[in-house]
Specification:
With 278 residues, this protein is α/β, with parallel strands linked by helices. It has 3 domains: 30 residues, no CATH class; 120 residues, FAD/NAD(P)-binding domain (3-Layer(bba) Sandwich); 115 residues, FAD/NAD(P)-binding domain (3-Layer(bba) Sandwich), CATH 3.50.50.60. Helices cover 29% and strands 24% of the residues. Strand 11 and strand 12 form a beta hairpin. Keywords: Flavoprotein, Oxidoreductase.
Length: 278
């Protein structure tokens, strides 16, 4: 885990363990399971409270007033031999997370797909900040004259031949093999994956999505469905761990305020009716 102030390089499982210990220490309850569905229950009466039903895969049902979805995303990476096997080791995706660790080494940037050439080129320019030896593998992507000129201007090598796979020796990346058999020596390769949100719970609820297909949230993580918030990579493909944590904090504050706003008119009505207040 990189980029988390005070915890840079910490294994994610250790952060999770510490967080869970804090939650239980404050009296919170943790439930191990996978959520199958979330449904919004109809309100009963004008001043009734909002209710949502959370059903787990084992059939257990939880009833709650608000839901915060933080189900993250998955990375769709190129189907090239060796890419999946070296993922997160010396086949990297984020120059901000991994650039320092591979600084001053022979680096490669692999275009993921012909439809994402612009993003891949931008990735190459960012990676170039970490090394003077960077090669951009187009892998079938067509570069414009301007893109090619910009790469050359920054001394980024360009290889147009299709990539056949990664060459690994003694459990270490040694190079990138091209379709013509030539191997370009590299010790680490970056690729910008296609992020795919794990947002089925949100879309099944009917949460509004933008033109790019991602669920829309406001600055606090509120979705278009009453009582439902989302944070982190489920709705923000660029969120690093520290960003997602901040979004979760903002959502928690907003949820608490929303619950108080919902309770206030009910309390006033009870007061006027002579019912118990509190």
């Amino acid at each position: 885990m990189q980029g988390f102030l005070g915890s840079d390089g910490l294994p994610p499982t250790e952060l999770l363990a510490a967080g869970r210990a804090e939650v239980t220490g404050y009296g919170g309850q943790l439930v191990s399971g996978t959520v199958a569905t979330v449904t919004s229950c109809p309100r009963v009466g004008r001043h009734s409270r909002l209710s949502l039903e959370v059903v787990l895969e084992d059939g257990a049902v939880l009833t709650t007033r608000r839901v915060l979805v933080t189900t993250g995303l998955r990375d769709d990476i190129p189907d090239i031999p060796g890419v999946r096997e070296r993922w997160g080791r010396d086949l990297l995706h984020c120059p901000y997370c991994h650039g320092y660790e591979v600084r001053d080494q022979p680096l490669g940037v692999l275009a993921g797909s012909p439809t994402a050439t612009e993003d891949a080129v931008a990735h190459a320019h960012i990676v170039r900040q970490w090394s003077d030896d960077v090669v951009f593998f187009t892998h079938g992507s067509a570069l414009t004259a301007e893109q090619r000129e910009q790469l050359v201007a920054r001394a980024i090598g360009v290889v147009d031949e299709p990539v056949a796979g990664l060459v690994v020796e003694h459990d270490r990346l040694r190079g990138v093999e091209l379709a013509n058999g030539r191997v370009v020596p590299r010790t680490a390769v970056f690729v910008r994956p296609q992020p795919v949100p794990n947002d089925t719970l949100l879309t099944d609820l009917g949460c509004e999505t933008a033109q790019n297909g991602w669920v829309v949230v406001d600055a606090t993580g509120r979705t278009s469905v009453a009582g439902v918030w989302a944070a982190g990579n489920a709705v923000n493909p660029r969120a690093q761990v520290i960003t997602a944590a901040g979004e979760g904090s903002a959502a928690a504050i907003a949820i608490n305020n929303d619950l108080v706003d919902e309770d206030l008119p009910i309390a006033v009505t009870n007061l006027r009716l002579g019912l118990p207040v509190g």
